[in-house]
């Protein structure tokens, strides 16, 4: 089960990716999303596999993220990154929980790839491994071509009316094609918060 985003990504020198998710899978929730380009299946991947912590991969370079999310509750997560020095930040439920640098520095995210939610790609748009599939619910997946501020991330995590939609990928049903029995549901986490 997975979803394919109908749009590709442009070349990006910075990004923020945010989403809501709910999972109680152990060990590891699987692949939240993967973006593959010709010649590089791991251009941009967010995965928690086996007993490893959540990791973000950019051009096959890895940073470990401090997320604890497999408790069966809705969580909001964001990762920001900039090509300058490969600086990244990780946010869970509106609070920064980790940061680092030297993650694929000076490597822009390449355009014209395939963006898949819920599966890790070993080839462009395919080569899926069932053991790496996401097990849970995912909603409000958004990508921006810049680093969001802590305040902007907080607005998203608290369901503020000031929350921004992604300027590269905005969560909209029309942009998502589902496969393999995945289902679409109305997202309830913001109603539960407010």
From TrEMBL:
It comes from Homo sapiens (Human). Coiled coil: none annotated. Belongs to the pentraxin family. This is Pentraxin family member. Residues 1-190 form the Pentraxin (PTX) domain. Gene3D superfamilies: 2.60.120.200. SUPFAM superfamilies: Concanavalin A-like lectins/glucanases. The keyword Ligase does not apply. The keyword Metal-binding applies. Pfam families: Pentaxin. It comes from the Eukaryota. One of its GO terms (cellular component) is extracellular region. Keywords: Calcium, Disulfide bond, Glycoprotein, Metal-binding. Its cofactor is Ca(2+). It is found in: Secreted. Homopentamer. Pentaxin (or pentraxin) have a discoid arrangement of 5 non-covalently bound subunits.
